Amino acid sequence: MTQKKTGVVLITVDGSSHSDRAVKHAIRLFHDSHKTLQLHVINVQYPISYGEISVYVAGADVKRFAREAGQRLLSSARKLLERANVPYVPHVAIGAIAETIVRFARNKRCDAIVMGTRGLGSVASLVLGSVATKVIHLTNLPVTLIK
Questions:
Q1: Which numeric CATH code is attached to 18-139?
Q2: N or C: which end of the chain has fewer CB within 10 A?
Q3: What Å distances lie between residue 46 and 16, 53, 100, 125, 130, CA to CA?
Q4: DSSP state, 16?
């Protein structure tokens, strides 16, 4: 009898309908894998430069606000996963978004990354420098982009 290998997939979310579609795709992957996938769901908050607001807000409060915002943006993904009865591990990180996603995936030994995309054309993507484009260039992992 062979034992199935458990894969690890990172789903990036930002609270948008695009990331909800990425979560739905990961749910299908989970069920297609006969429930052998481990899913990590991450929202990355871009850091606010403390120097810019230090006169008004304490550093600990800035981090707390970012974590609270990240938790709010995870809520739609949480609902979808819980409704589908799919186990997952939620995460909120603070940092440069694409770089933080890739570093997190490496640290968790993920096998793949699933993320939503706003469906920009290639020219718009080049001009705007999308997070998805940066992730693709920074990682060796397979990246599935969901429109």
A1: 3.40.50.620
A2: N
A3: 16, 15, 10, 19, 14
A4: S
